[in-house]
Give the backbone structure.
Amino acid sequence: MQRKILFFLSILFFTLSFVFSLVLIAQSKVEGESGFVGSEACKDCHEGQYNKFVKSVHGKKAVPGNPANRDGCESCHGPGAQHVEKGGGRGVAIFVFSKKESSTARDAKCLGCHQDMRGVVNWNISKHKSFLVTCDNCHSIHSPVPGKSYLWAQEPDLCFGCHRNIRAQFNKQSHHPIKEEFVGRQALKCSSCHNPMGTFDIKTMIKADSVNDLCYRCHAEKRGPYAFEHPPVPENCLYCHEVHGSNHSRLLTRKVPLLCESCHNTGGHPSRPYTNLHSFLGPATSNKNRFFARGCLNCHGNIHGSSLAPTFQR
Amino acid sequence: MSELPWKYSWKQPCPDLSAIGGETMKAKMILVTLMICLMPLSYAFPQDNKTIEGEIGFTGVWFDLHAKEGGKAKFTEYRDLREDGAVFGRARLNLDTDKYFLNFDLGDFAYDTQYYTVDGGMWGKFKFGLFYDEIPHNITFDARTPFLGAGHDLLVGAPNPNFPLWNTFDYSILRRQYGGGFKVDVIRPFFLDFSFERENRDGIKPTGAAETSPGGRAFELPEPVEYVTNNLKVSAGYSKKPLFLSLNYIHSDFNNSNTSLGLPPNFNAPNAFSLPPDNTYDKGAFKGAVSLPFNSRFSTNVGFARGRSETSVVSLIGSGYTGKVDNVNYDFMLTSNPVRFLDIKAYYKYYKRFNKSDDPTGIADIFLNYNISTYGGELGFRLPAQFYLSGGYKYVKTERTKKGEDDAAEILPFNMDNILFVDLKWSGLDFLEARVGYENLDRDAHYRTLQSAQNLSKRFSYAAQNKNTVKAAVDLFPLENLNFGLEYRYKKIGYSDTLFGLRNTLFGLRSDKRHELDISADYRIGKIAKVYGYGDYGWIKFNQMQSAGGLPWEGEQWDKTWGYGIGAEFYVIPKKLTLIFQHDYVKSNGTVDFTLLNGLFGAGGLPAFPAANQDNIDITRWDDYTLYSFSLRAVYNFTKSLTAMVGYAYERFWYSDAQLNNYLFAPAGGTNAAFLTGAYKDQSYRANLVFGGVSFKF
């Protein structure tokens, strides 16, 4: 008897579930079909946003799959009938890109169309995604700064909004030219080296398989291979260079000769203490020319590699 | 043509530069001609919904600079302001229809920061782009050398200490880049991307050589830079969910017009200084991704690259060296979001550098190979109350070998890194977001010979270490128009190699400790003003120990850097008159505290105690500097189209350093002698700038 009751209840449960699902699907179809009001209705209240949308790449009918070819504003914001019925208001019965929506939901709106873009294909790997950064944190469809990427602000200011420590490094006296005034076009941008959409270098999102591969793109003369290699050089530029900015010239992590002495402690002059007394007017009597001016590099000029000398002096 | 005086100034005597200048000038002329030819095309565009807009403007800058040679270069480090004044022009034109677009952007005409770009295409079908741009890197002007031929591949003459009679030249490099490319989407879901660019780098940079090795006089030398690099990229593939496939090819070749820098006869053989050899780099890669069930995705990146170099200068020492290095890279990654609250990531990476260079005579036969294997995983949990907890583990194994290495004490170690990290983010309130994170790296160094394990000198890049990083950040948005952010980081690296269990017996870098605190805020006061500011503080301390002939010494370096910036925009007459104010300040104070042990005073050329003591050996000026800038601008919109701007700026850079203060071109004598050129000397400057300009939009 108990088994019959259980069987009956199971049948009832699955039947009800099935019917309920059908009702929901049917209802959503009815709502879906009747819920769209068209972009012209949006324009009545949001003329500014509408005009920007029409002028933007999203408004171009020539682009297959564009919102202009689908449901216009409602392609991203969802059906607006209820929003209109309720008299509008931010987020009232409509999808808006705000913190109230989950990061997954906001990204899904964009990736629904952009998932096939080759620049976005590694978004699933991106460190930004792991930290719940969403497309709309950086991109604005309605209020972008001039440019092709629809960003809220120009690089590097946009990036510095979150990466404050990197901003501090770029403010140091030795830095890559990323924020120089009176340079007409930015020589470098954060996105010259990093892909914020994700790369296989998960942590730093650099656009190369290794740090050195990236640096060699602009510094091809360091690529070699050299007959005489300085082992840290072909392995990682960052052993000696602070890439974003440093207090020390040539983006060095530490100042020569102490940087060199961090590794070289062999007999003879590499292990000497080069102190204030070795400066131009200091009273030290020997080894002075290893300290003043460019220190070790006064003699070892080819420190990145040499074709002639294992000591990098030629 | 206006760039000619500058271009000739960095070389003396004036050589024939027509080949260099001619080539880039040709590229520039082609680009400008192309732009002029393309402009009328805009009128051939279909008339429906055609938008033409653009801007033309000029900005004049007049300045009063107080600086010596180094300061003049530092002031213009990445800009072209060598005369007392300059007028920079800019023009922009954007043509847009429902089907086509065409954009021109050009500026800084005739200056070393000039740029010209054209891009256009058919929406959704294809895009093309062409560009030309320049940027200088000025290091030191009016540097000196006792030799003739700065900027060329042969230095002649005998050094003499009478430096006022030396020849002058500029340490400066100009980069000129030009190229173009296209992206084809019309065959979607297939795609094709192509780009080519060429870079010319010309100028002089500082280098150095010793007359004899080891020891001998030091010579700072002007190294000629005449580089041409060509880069070609082709990428083709298929992209439609669930599949992404692409094949990529990169070719890069680097050509140096000078293979060596000939040195005067009194230098020991080889009587030349080698310059970067010509090299080529070819890389092929496959990238792919496929979507899997349970909201998962598998991605891969497999690449093979080969670099070659030609070093004809090696013939000077009778070697038949040919450079060849292969790089292999594999990346495999699986990401999954099987349920709403869980993110999973697992990955494996293998990177190999294999130096296949050939040196039949064995002179240069020490080549570095390394393999890096990495695997790891991350988990992210969406927890109740808007918490997001993520963490992971990563293992990295680095294996290094040097072909031809026969010094057992210098055999490079293998490293095994175990990295653990955890981050917690909370966004439970509309007006607040907070993050904390921790990471630990535990590196083990496996020395493969007893001698290398026993070597007291541990190179920090390979030595065992334990690194702890703690970070915390808060972002506050208490009002819709107020944002405030604060971030703190602490990092400590302890180089923990020990010798036979005894700590503090190793030499080299022993610890690296850092604190960083950064804040930023911005506030918009209705339609009246916007104010913003930031502040940064950084504290870095390195500790290292060395042994000079068995006599140990310790050095502690500090870098303390702090800075702030404040800015405001006042909308004095809304949409008409705006005042913009900006002030930035950065100060760095570096010191090195030496402690000499066991009677080292008097050794190695140091004066004996008490002439040298624990106080006067310390370095108090260690790249100390202050950067100060202030600017005030007024922007007035006469109409929607016509805008004028006028402003004033003050910039000051003060620099002091123990290695460069009281600079002498020919200091000391005997084996301490040096013949220096003044590179990085006297970098301080102060400048008043007045600027103004007009722009017309249409």
In short: Residues 38-96 of chain A form one domain. Chain A touches chain B through 116 residues (CB under 8 Å). Residues 23-32 of chain A have pLDDT under 50 and may be disordered.
